């Protein structure tokens, strides 16, 4: 399983880029999974639904399934957030896992940098950034990828993970 990440400030376009990359990879026959790290709480459940009521009653895990999909919700209930390695183990069998967030994780990543966002680039202080995708030409010693050229970004990622070992 190959792992590749995306980092950037809020509003830079990480989610949009990943959304465009997934079809590029699946057309090439890859099974793609995603880890999206949120810095704040979130809930995919709805108050009043059976699964929500079970969680509210104290269940640690609630697994819901149908003939279309299944989802496992796990309440941490004060336990530490699982490590990235623990989360990756849950995603087998996948050919490629794309990670959004986890800026400091030792995973190769592309920084999505838009000067219009008004934030300093991450790459000077992050040794795990191996390329930058931007909507403008910027001075950068790393490979600079045009943000709107999704096929070129997909090619870069596949070439990179083929040449390097990732966790």
Defining traits:
167 residues, alpha/beta, Rossmann fold, six-stranded parallel beta sheet, two-stranded antiparallel sheet, 25% helix, globular, Molybdopterin guanine dinucleotide biosynthesis accessory protein MobB, MobB_dom, GTP binding, P-loop_NTPase, MGD_biosynthesis_adapter
Describe the structure.
It contains 4 helices and 8 strands; from the N terminus they run E-H-E-H-E-E-H-E-E-E-E-H. It has 167 residues and is α/β, with parallel strands linked by helices. The chain has a single domain, classed as P-loop containing nucleotide triphosphate hydrolases (Rossmann fold, 3-Layer(aba) Sandwich), CATH 3.40.50.300. The strands form 2 sheets. Strands 2-5-1-6-7-8 form a 6-stranded parallel beta sheet, covered by helices on one side. A two-stranded antiparallel sheet has the order 3-4. A hairpin with a 4-residue loop joins strand 3 and strand 4. The radius of gyration is 18 Å and the shape is globular. The mean pLDDT is 90. One of its GO terms (biological process) is Mo-molybdopterin cofactor biosynthetic process. It comes from Azoarcus indigens. This is Molybdopterin guanine dinucleotide biosynthesis accessory protein MobB. One of its GO terms (molecular function) is GTP binding.
